Structure formats: C-alpha cells, structure tokens
Batch of 3 targets.
Target 1
Amino acid sequence: MKTLVIGAGIAGLSAAQELRKANHQVILLEARSRVGGRIHTDRSFAEVPIELGAEFIHSSQVPTYSLAQKLGLRTFHYNQHNDTLVRLPDGALRTIAEVGTQKQGYDNVRLVDWPEVNGEESLEAYLERLGERPIPFKLQEYISDFDHPRYLSAKAAREYLCDPSAEEGDYRLLDGYD
C-alpha cells in the first residue's frame, strides 16, 4: 500500500516510521528545505547547538526520552523549579523553589475537582467560566512555562494537573535536538 505523509515534523516522521513498519510504501512530503518541524537546531552561531524551536524532552515518561536513550544521546536533566519565575497574587516575582513552601494544599490536585472542558476551550475561558477559585501552584507553573492562558488548551492544562511526571522536570539534548 502506498501512503503519502504530509509534513516532516516529529508527528509526520513518526507516522512515516510506523507506516513503514506496517509495510507501507511511504512518501514523505515537506514544504521546507529541512525536516523537523518545530525542532530546529542552529549550529552556525556558536560552538554549541542553539535550539530555535523545540528545546526540551518533558520528563522521562515520554517516547522521545526513551528514543534518546536508545540512540545513546546525551541528556541534561533540567529542573525548572530552580529558576522559573512565577508571579504571585501580590504581583511579586519569585522562583518556583522560593515559593515551594507556599504551595501547601496544592500538592494533591484531583482531576475530579476540575470540571470537564467545553470542546476546544482556551485555558483563559475555562478559568473565567469556573469563577473565583484558587489556581493550583502546579497550574501557575504550567502557565509560566508556556504562554498567555488565551493561547493554551484547557484540556491539556487540566490533564497536566494530575500528571505525576510533570514534577520530574525536563531534559535537554546536549548535542542538539535535531
């Protein structure tokens, strides 16, 4: 069977690999002059690779981590609790490590305490719909790691609240994500 995969980002490359394993004849079509999608490592600027796109492997529980281990790629464990900034309700900025003692009551977040998401609702709309309630420290962390809540998926954020691997930290590929 012949199959066309459009896009040579990580999803397209993974799909092509799985299809090949299933004995498909695969054509991979990419519009750019390089593969990788969001993964874009620049080696022209410095002696070390500079990541211009995807940068981290988010925990040892995801498939990319086991693939990196299988390929013998060097990783560096990065624990964002040491230097990621969080804005406190009073407006002050502190590192996650500094406010660690203030996260009492948020360590045992249960998904059942957070209502279902309406379709593709943004995190901003979801939180507005829920009204006044304390935002768990773990969710504050999630928002600080990414972007404004209007651009974040409420479904992904809700799942993250109960993901035990989220506490582990991230891994950086020392020799480049590409």
Note: The longest strand covers residues 2-6.
Target 2
Amino acid sequence: MSMLSKTMKEALNGQVLMEAQSSQAYLAMGSWAEIQPGLKGVTQFFFKHSEEERSHMLKLIHFINERGGFAVIPALEQPVLTFVSLKQAFEKLYEHELKVSESINNLVEIALAEKDYATHNFLQWYVMEQMEEERLARECNDKLELIGDDKSGLYLFDRDIMTMENE
C-alpha cells in the first residue's frame, strides 16, 4: 500500500482538527440548548451531532495511521458557548458545515493532483456525508425562518428535529 505524501498527511491532519472542532462546537451547542426551556429534541440533536463529528475524526485518524502517517491529536480552542437564539445557533451550524465541505473538497483536490486514488476513494464517503449535513442544516434554518417567534412552531420543530435527519 502506498504511503501518504507529506502534503496529504498535513491536509488530513488539518481535517482531524476540523472534525474535532466541529464535535466541540456541537457539544457546546448541546450544553447551551439543555439549559433552555423546552428544547429537549434540539439538545439531543446537538449532542448526537457532536458524537457523529467525533466518529468522523476517528475514521480519519485510523486512515492516516493505516497509510503510514501519524494522526496528530490537536489542541482545541474553546468553542462559542452561548447563542442569542436557536436561530443563531442553527445559522452557525450551517456556516460551519459549509466550511467543512470546503475543506473536504480541498482534500479531494489534493488527492487527485497527487494521483492518490486510495485517499480519493476514502474521501468520497465524506463528500456524501457533507451533502447530507448541509441539506439538514439548510432545512433546519428554513424551518426556523418560517417559524419566526411562533412558540407553537418552535415546539413542533423541537419535537420533529430528531426525525428530520431521515427524511
């Protein structure tokens, strides 16, 4: 099995950091949501997403190490801890997912430029995953936009959020 180039290793380690930061950001969102009244579904959603991002990071760590690299476990900055509204939290989530997608696309570009087809193939899972994450974040934002300040709408949003992922 061919080894990872120095460039590819560094880029993949950069993605490890990004996935770790995503996990922390969603963990912080979950903690914030948990102390808001009536956001049990949203709280679960954020905590579940934090776990997912952590699993994306682990998948990268194993890949880097299996391909002769060394996955570096990064130091993390404190994520944003509080939000003025649920709408703002979901706007941040969407912005974050767009940044992750851009980063994944950059990795794919490097893999193709280096003719590293094993890494290119590995990254396709992330490409599909990001399409799904973006869609979900966009839908959440669209729904919150429609709801505005309507409390009954927020109640329904909170109730339905855990099922939205499978639509």
Note: The mean pLDDT is 95.
Target 3
Amino acid sequence: MLLAIDFLTRFWTDMMGRADGPMTFRFFLQPTMALITALIDGIRAARAGKPPYAWLIAHSSGGERLATWREGVTATTRILLLGVVMDVIYQVRVYGGFRYPLEAFVLAVLLGFIPYLILRGPFTRLAGYWLRRHPHHGKDSRP
C-alpha cells in the first residue's frame, strides 16, 4: 500500500513539474495538433454521414466499436508518438535518462488523444450542420 502511495505521489509531482519545466510548448502543440486532426476527421465523417465519434464508441456493437476506436488511435498516432518523444527528451534533460515510460505514455494520451476524443464529435456535428445548410460544399468537385 505504501509503495502505491509513493508511486502516485511521485507520479503526480512529476506531472505537475512538467507544466513549468523545459519544453512546456508541448502543452500547446499536442492539443492543437489533436484539434486540427479532429476537425479534419469530423468533416470527413460529416461528409460520409457518420454519427459523432464518441457516440459511435458508446453505442456501437463490439466489432464496430473496436473499429471506431482504432480509427481514432490511428488518426492520433503521430501526435501520441510526438508526445512520447518530447517526454523522453524532457526526462533526459531533467532526470539524466528515460526513467518513467508510464508518465510519458499518460501525458501523450492526455495531451494528444483526449482532446481528439472530446472535439471530434462536436466538429462532426458542426460540419454536418454546415453541410446541410450549404449542400453544394459537401460534394466532391473533382471529376
């Protein structure tokens, strides 16, 4: 029990230390990249007539839910990898080595995937609304 409390205390302290240490730009870069990716995927989903992303995950059957989940993970893979790489660099600079891989993964997910998960549905709804009001913009103009 004491080991778990020590782990969680160090984990939380390290996470909060990243906010004002070196490489704080990633707290803006990763969510911005997730926002852009969610916007692009939301527009594609609206054009295809798909329901919002989180709704699909929550209300789909097992196979469809897994496919939808994979679609989001695939869309954010570069963002997640970038986040882990930036945290490796941070840890090497601050701790002298890569000591806490779980922290790197958690931070990458918090900054890269969670914003995507939250924003893709509203972007799909907004794009669907816009496409219904302007139907000629939803058509592919290429031959």
Note: Residues 39 and 139 are 18 Å apart (CA to CA).
